Amino acid sequence: MQLGKPWCSTCCIHFNTFEEHREHSKSDEHVFKIQTRYSGPSIPRYIMERAMENWDRVKESWNETSDESSGDGPELCEVETPEFHEELCLFCRHTSSTFDENMAHMKTCHSFTIPTLKDYYIKPVTAVRCFHNIIFGCYECISCGKQRRTLEGIQHHMVAKNHCHFQMTYEISRFCKEVERFDAQETRESQEIQLLRSTQASHNDGTILQRPPLRHMPKFLGYESTRDGHHKCEEKQRECCVFGN
């Protein structure tokens, strides 16, 4: 180390001017080493390194036309939210293999981290789903709340402004819990549909066997039991009205 010259202790290199030091501190290599050093034991190092492999390719494919000058005015959240995929990055086009790799990518490349959610009883994937709805559905920044006209525009805004972070507030926690309840309701409805479909059994030849009818149908559904089968009470009442007089 040379005395009197700026020095980067992380990368072990020195610079001739402070301007070179400032430019180096913004480089991807320097930021990656800093975040890797303080990333903690929650994410393995090999996953974080794998998350950085395609980062250069993602940056090259970034749509440069989506700058901040287009669509500074607020837009209403009227766009249909695309389907959520836990492997898709919230801030660029990168797609990982697993949710953990996606979290490592967003942490190393965009400084996105999720605080401890134990006090809120919220799963990390639920929080990411909520931010997916905000970003992909409303084109809204999760940090400052600004909106853009396109998805690429709001992603470019968050990356350029370093707004890929958030503060866990009461509104966000309530939104996450509502999303969890909605997902639970969808799961119950899906299970009910599968239960209804399970009433039919399929042979290998493709023919379908129907389950035999119940011997005693519930009367509150409008049925009554007879020897010949089950008939609607309403039909019998109509017959009485026509032929009874």
Tell me what the structure shows.
The protein has helices spanning 18-25, 28-37, 45-51, 55-60, 99-110, 124-138, 151-160, 170-197, 233-243, and strands spanning 7-8, 13-14, 200-202, 208-210, 223-225, 230-232. With 245 residues, the protein is mostly helical. The protein has 2 domains: 1-38, no CATH class; 43-185, no CATH class. Strands 1-2 form a two-stranded antiparallel ribbon. Strands 3-4 form a two-stranded antiparallel ribbon. A hairpin with a 4-residue loop joins β1 and β2 (13-14). α3 crosses α5. It is elongated and about 75 Å long.
Helix-strand layout with pairing:
Elements: E1 7-8, E2 13-14, H1 18-25, H2 28-37, H3 45-51, H4 55-60, H5 99-110, H6 124-138, H7 151-160, H8 170-197, E3 200-202, E4 208-210, E5 223-225, E6 230-232, H9 233-243
Antiparallel strand pairs: 1-2, 3-4, 5-6
